[in-house]
TrEMBL record:
It comes from the Bacteria. PANTHER family: ALKANESULFONATE MONOOXYGENASE (PTHR42847), ALKANESULFONATE MONOOXYGENASE-RELATED (PTHR42847:SF4). This is LLM class flavin-dependent oxidoreductase. Residues 6-330 form the Luciferase-like domain. Keywords: Flavoprotein, FMN, Monooxygenase, Oxidoreductase. Gene3D superfamilies: Luciferase-like domain. It holds the Pfam family Bac_luciferase.
Length: 370
């Protein structure tokens, strides 16, 4: 299967630096996530041939469902991978929203199920369930959401939901592909039972292979097969020196006190994925290239995807081909700022991937279907 490349929508704002306190001039400039700027990023992804865009979910950013609806009117092909937390809305309502979104966007909705990893944020939403309870609830949620799409009214009684005759009276003509992101055993169990694509944040290829192998076995025990995807940041330039100079600049701008505070926050996380991001660099700031062209610098300050592919266009293409050969079918990328970096990647790396036969930028409507 050709690789499907996705870009990231900076629904929390954008800029050149990792930290908002990067100093004067353009390095410290911040772009608000207003609809004009987000439209520019979405149009760039559309035009460059990305199959989809990941729209994150959480209190730090704008709401992804509403953004997808707005951006679909301004783009033609790119799909919208809406992240959402089961448990914050009714599964039947989610099925209905997804069906409406499919009709509004011309079948351009993808779903990314995320259960949340920060207890403080969950409580802001009024959710007191712990990590494993959230996955148990996600399991029931996905059974009901998929059932409601079937057109046959579904009765379901579980520990978290009790619904009668759940149904979308106008089911989607095409069910959105369901991605599930998480690195814990609980995430893999739920992905094995309900997801089409299992996602994990980018790590070294051997570590990713271990995660995918475990998920594959868990799915096989359920009599199912999963596709796999991962998510990296990217810094790609005409030469390796230029790319590493950009990475060094990002690192040099970090305030050590902010890094210490961020690492302490990540240690309190309930997310196995977040723990794995911290383990990638293990606090060793002088050894951030943890695998050729895999740099753990973003994870010093940023929650979530902490690793970046860094190198010349040819080196980045090599790493991506390696990931594809290891089973990655969906690669979600982001870079700072998302508009400029989309072009560095689209004009620098995509042609090489095309030449090597791993990337086929066909219309997203066909490409993103699994
Ligand atoms: C590709 C990818 C994207 C994710 N996007 C989000 C997001 O937008 N919002 C969020 O709260 N969590 C997001 N997550 C986090 C996880 O889905 C999960 O909620 C968290 O890591 C806890 O799960 P774990 O312990 O199984 O790793 C994402 C994870 C992955 C792999």
């Amino acid at each position: 299967m050709p690789l499907q490349l996705h870009w990231f929508l900076p629904a929390h704002g954008d800029g050149r630096a990792l930290s908002r306190r990067a100093g004067a001039g353009v390095r410290g400039a911040q772009r608000q996530p207003d609809i004009t700027y987000l439209t520019q990023v979405a149009c760039a992804a559309d035009q460059l041939g990305f199959a989809g865009m990941l729209l994150p979910a959480g209190l730090f950013c704008e709401d992804p469902w509403l953004l997808a609806a707005a951006l679909a009117t301004r783009t033609e092909r790119v799909r919208f991978m809406v992240a959402f937390r089961p448990g914050l809305l009714s599964p039947t309502l989610a099925a209905q929203m997804a069906a409406t979104a499919q009709r509004l966007t011309g079948d351009r909705l993808l779903l990314n199920v995320v259960t949340g990893g920060d207890p403080t944020e969950q409580r802001r939403y009024g959710d007191w369930h712990d990590h494993d309870q959230r996955y148990e609830r996600a399991d029931e949620f996905l059974a009901i959401m998929r059932g409601a799409w079937s057109g046959d009214p579904l009765d379901f009684t579980g520990a978290h939901y009790d619904v009668r005759a759940a149904v979308t009276t106008r089911p989607p003509a095409t069910h959105p592909t369901v991605f599930l992101g998480g690195s814990s055993a609980a995430a893999q169990r739920v992905a094995a039972r309900h997801a089409d694509v299992y996602l994990a944040w980018g790590e070294t290829p051997p570590l990713l292979v271990d995660l995918f192998d475990q998920a594959r076995l868990t799915a096989a025990a359920e009599g199912r097969a999963l596709a796999f995807g991962t998510r990296f940041n990217v810094i790609t330039r005409d030469t390796a020196e230029q790319a590493w100079a950009e990475a060094d600049q990002l690192l040099g701008e970090l305030d050590p006190a902010m890094v210490t505070a961020a690492q302490a926050r990540f240690r309190r996380t309930e997310s196995e994925g977040q723990r794995r991001m911290a383990a990638l660099h293990d606090g060793q700031l002088d050894r951030l290239e943890v695998y050729p062209n895999v740099w753990a610098g973003f994870g010093l300050l940023r929650p979530g995807a902490g690793a970046a592919l860094v190198g010349s266009h040819a080196e980045v293409a090599d790493r991506i081909v390696e990931l594809h050969e290891l089973g990655v079918e969906h690669l979600i990328l982001s870079g700072q700022p998302h508009l400029e970096e989309a072009y560095w990647f689209g004009e620098g790396v995509m042609p090489l991937l095309r030449e090597r036969g791993v990337f086929d930028p066909r219309p997203a409507a066909a490409a993103a279907r699994t």
